Amino acid sequence: MERGKMAELESLETAAEHERILREIESTDTACIGPTLRSVYDGEEHARFMEKLEARIRNHDREIEKMCNFHYQGFVDSITELLKVRGEAQKLKNQVTDTNRKLQNEGKELIIAMEELKQCRLQQRNISATVDKLTLCLPVLEMYSKLREQMKSKRHYPALKTLEHLEHTYLPQVSHYRFCKIMVDNIPKLREEIKEVSMSDLKDFLESIRKHSDKIGETAMKQAQQQRNLDNIVSQHPRISGGKKSKKEVCASSDLEVKNTSPMSEQDSGILDVEDEDEDEEVPGAQDLVDFSPVYRCLHIYSVLGARETFENYYRKQRRKQARLVLQPPSNMHETLDGYRKYFNQIVGFFVVEDHILHTTQGLVNRAYIDELWEMALSKTIAALRTHSSYCSDPSLVLDLKNLIVLFADTLQGYGFPVNQLFDMLLEIRDQYSETLLKKWSGVFRNILDSDNYSPIPVINEEIYKKIVGQFPFQDAELEKQPFPKKFPFSEFVPKVYNQIKEFIYACLKFSEDLHLSSTEVDDMIRKSTNLLLTRTLSNCLQNVIKRKNVGLTELVQIIINTTHLEKSCKFLEEFITNITNVLPETVHTTKLYGTTTFKDARHAAEEEIYTNLNQKIDQFLQLADYDWMTMEPSSKASEYLVDLIGFLRSTFAVFTHLPVSSTLACFLCCPSLAPSLPTLIVWGFGKAPQSPGLTGSLLAGA
User: Which candidate, 140, 207, 241, 439, has a CA 20 to 30 Å from the CA of 565?
Assistant: First the structure.
């Protein structure tokens, strides 16, 4: 019974649930009916539910049928009305169709215009989009075109900057275009092209300055010479009225000073004078002759590309190679001054360029690198000068070379290079210069002595007298009182030799200029060189003249007189050296002149030669003695050879009257040699023949 109740309760619950589901189905949207139906199928009573559902459908069908039956008359009326409306609707349809046809015919043009407007609007939109895109692309293309133009005009550094802007600023904005991708792919190639072209320009620059180093150096040395001339003018004329002088006036003043300080016109080199046609023109700066922009551009380009160290190493390596080429002198450099000048110009040009690079770039070259090159250049230059200057035998060329070396040193010193070793080397060349001067003056003295007539200089008027006195320091009150014409006691070679000694001193002084030597050093150098000239060169020339076979007694006597006057002039040479060096003879370590010894030795040699020649001549006369050793009657006249001998001695001794006392006594020493010659002759004659009163009388008469 309980089971029956429970079954009944379950049946009621199931019926209630089915009722709820049916209400949901009736009241719920068909899209949401799925969950409701699923609950039916999930249960086990779906058969009963289907029965209830069919029963509910039948109920609704009956209700619909009732409702239709109730409204049927209205439906019939509606159909009747609808049939009536259908005719009217057909008419309306025909009218609408006709109106539509007319509207279509009338709207074809409008449709065409609208279609055209549509196309225009589409084109306008496309154009606007294109303009927007081109607005982004045109700067890229313009920058690329600018890049190409800069590369074409070889403006590589701006081209590199343009390339940087193009890569980092413009191309990222239009990176999705194909041409931009092509540009991006070409950027490394363009960088490499700029790098190669800039390196090519650098190579051309290096080749150009190698070829034009001599011109650069020549300009720098001209500037140094002009500056030195100006410094000399300022130092000698510190107060110049009228403000600045013109360049021509400065050059004229400089020329005047050279003439005043260099009386030895024939020794004046003149190699450092600026040419006349260049005096009115401003000499450009050495750096103005060179366009350094290829170096700067290449340096900037390699710096931007991160290869600065590579560039620095390449530049220094190439310049070292060029330095070695520049420092290699030509084999015939010693033949002309132009060879030395070109050599110096190239060296100066090289270091002027390097100095400019040092001060205008940051780290391309440094002071250590420059000093290393200069040390190498200094050692090679000094070695080359030592070698080539040793071949030079012309003192004028040596002097010109010295002036050129001084200008070379001053020029480089102006750029901060140490040049003390060059001046030390000039002191070595000074000794060589002295030797070449001695050789030259040896020829000068030989010519003077060979061309001299060894006769006192005749003077016919006051002008000639003053001229000779002006050339040679001679004072004789008695000679001045004598009327014209009159004669100097010495021959022409005395003033000529004296003037040539002064010229030699001037030549020595000329070499010592601009060597930064003290007055004492210059004085010592001049005195030592002059002593060599007197004791070696002039002494040898005089000795050669005295020892010549064809020299006569008259010439020897005149040489004694000449050397006596030259000996007296030595004190004037001392004063002359003192005046030009401003070093007093009393100064400690001052070298004395040995001229008196030279002229004394020459005079003694001449006296000895006179003594020898007189004895030889007397012996020749005695050899002419011809006696009749058998005569019985003495002759009342002396022998002819004795008469000739006495006449020769009389004329010779007359010449001796012009000699100094000491020389006269030396010459008269020949007389004692004559005295023993006659007894010897008598003894020889008695030994040859028997004694006879006539022979003895003849000999005694001759004696």
Answer: 439
With cut-offs at 50, 70 and 90, classify the pLDDT of residue 503.
Answer: very high
User: Over 60: is that where the pLDDT of 140 sits?
Assistant: yes
Angstrom distances, CA of residue 40 to CA of 23, 55, 98, 420? 13, 16, 59, 124
If we measure between CA atoms, which residue out of 681, 584, 575, 588 comes closest to residue 626? 681
Going 569 to 572 to 576 to 581, the CA torsion angle's sign is positive
Tokens standing for residue 579: 């005046």
Report whether pLDDT(120) > 90: yes
- Residue 461 burial class via C-beta count within 10 angstroms: exposed 0-12, middle 13-18, buried 19 and up: exposed
| Rounded-to-integer distance, Cα 249 and Cα 279, Å | 10
Q: Which range, of 111-115, 461-465, 594-598, 678-682, averages the lowest pLDDT?
A: 678-682
Mean pLDDT of 600-622: 72
Pull the structure tokens for residue 222.
């001209």
Tokens matching residue 191? 């960088």
CA dihedral 104, 106, 108, 113 (to 10 degrees): -140
In this structure, what are the phi and psi dihedrals at residue 311, rounded to the nearest 5 degrees? -65, -45
Q: What amino acid occupies position 617?
A: K
SS3 call for 327? coil
Query: Model pTM greater than 0.70?
Result: no
Return the SS3 of 559. helix
- What are the C-alpha distances in Å from 343 to residues 287, 333, 372, 399? 19, 8, 20, 17
CB 570 within 8 A of CB 594: no
Residue among 233, 290, 287, 225 at smallest CA distance from 260 = 233
Residue 84 CB burial class (10 angstroms; 0-12, 13-18, ≥19): exposed
DSSP alpha helices (H): ranges in 153-212? 156-165, 178-211
* Token pair listed for 521: 């050093």
